[in-house]
Design brief:
Elements (H helix, E strand, L loop, with lengths): L4 H19 L6 H8 L3 H8 L2 H28 L4 H14 L2 H13 L1 H28 L9 H22 L9 H16 L8
Helix pairs in contact: 1-2, 1-4, 1-6, 2-3, 4-5, 4-7, 5-7, 5-8, 6-7, 6-8, 7-8, 8-9
Amino acid sequence: MVPQVDTVRERILTEATRLFGAQGVAGTSIQQVAQAAGITRPTLVYHFGSKEGLREAVLDALMAHWRAEVPRLLSAASAGGPRLDALLLAFFDFFRRDPDRARLLLREALDRPQELALRLRRDLQPYTGLLTQAITVGQAQGLLRADADPHAFTVLVISAALGVVATGADTAALVQPEPSVDALQHELIRVARTSLLPPRPENP
């Protein structure tokens, strides 16, 4: 039975995301992606035209996943705990379900920073803005530190989450015993949460 076009395309995108994340776009050939996807090079070229076309499609697919999945994850998570924890867990969950996404974004940040910045502004700000808004609301209610910068906090926490997912299994070698990625995630969320809490009043 001949595979459906969507199935072939999705398989190519999955393997390209994995290889681009592991080796970088420059270090990955179209032939490598085709071989990993179990197709011929002409088939890949038919679908995407060139390696640059494939790279654009991979990034478009990543952003589309974000737009489709993050609102669902937030809806499912927000019912189980404080809004801030739910948001942080949702961002972690999105990348941990496919760590190659995090690796690819980090590589793009190093290789094509201006292009990535344009994509982040266009595709992700509406969703990362949810975290900024949650902090602002908490500050207005007196629940979170008034001196915290919601925008800087959001950038720092999401950047740290990307780093944990993309490199945590390796950078854990900095200490002994080596913490798991689950432990790193838990600790990052704990640190993020406590850094926003207002100081306790001193005992008289």
